[in-house]
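Help needed: design a sequence for this.
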């Protein structure tokens, strides 16, 4: 397995919660920062959150800060996105991706800084 695999998406009412998972294999991902991005219908893909390779540092888009939490289980090679207080505008396909640079010292949010992408998981928030 080269590309990460997302899961956990679904339909939820506004104000509800979902937890997304991004499963990645072994050394291919364990020493790299991992990011979450999303793409809503008719819109460009946008950055959501990133966590560094050790799990000790995170960064969020302003639109989700305080509502979403990114974390990772290094032993299981899995990255999570806990999404609380969901809004209808959070509806999108959520994808995870790997930072291109081995153990990069800073967190990055531009798509060009990421290489291996998952297929994505649909999140739909109803009013």
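Sure. Designed sequence:
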């Amino acid at each position: 397995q080269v590309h990460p695999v997302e899961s956990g998406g679904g339909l939820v009412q506004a104000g509800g919660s979902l937890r997304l998972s991004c499963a990645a294999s072994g050394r291919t991902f364990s020493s790299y920062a991992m990011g979450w991005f999303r793409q809503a219908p008719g819109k460009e893909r946008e950055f959501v959150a990133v966590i560094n390779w050790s799990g000790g540092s995170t960064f969020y888009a302003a639109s989700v800060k305080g509502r979403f939490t990114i974390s990772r289980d290094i032993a299981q090679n899995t990255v999570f996105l806990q999404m609380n207080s969901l809004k209808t505008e959070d509806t999108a396909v959520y994808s995870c991706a790997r930072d291109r640079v081995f153990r990069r010292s800073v967190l990055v949010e531009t798509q060009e800084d990421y290489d291996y992408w998952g297929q994505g998981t649909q999140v739909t928030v109803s009013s």
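The mean pLDDT is 95.
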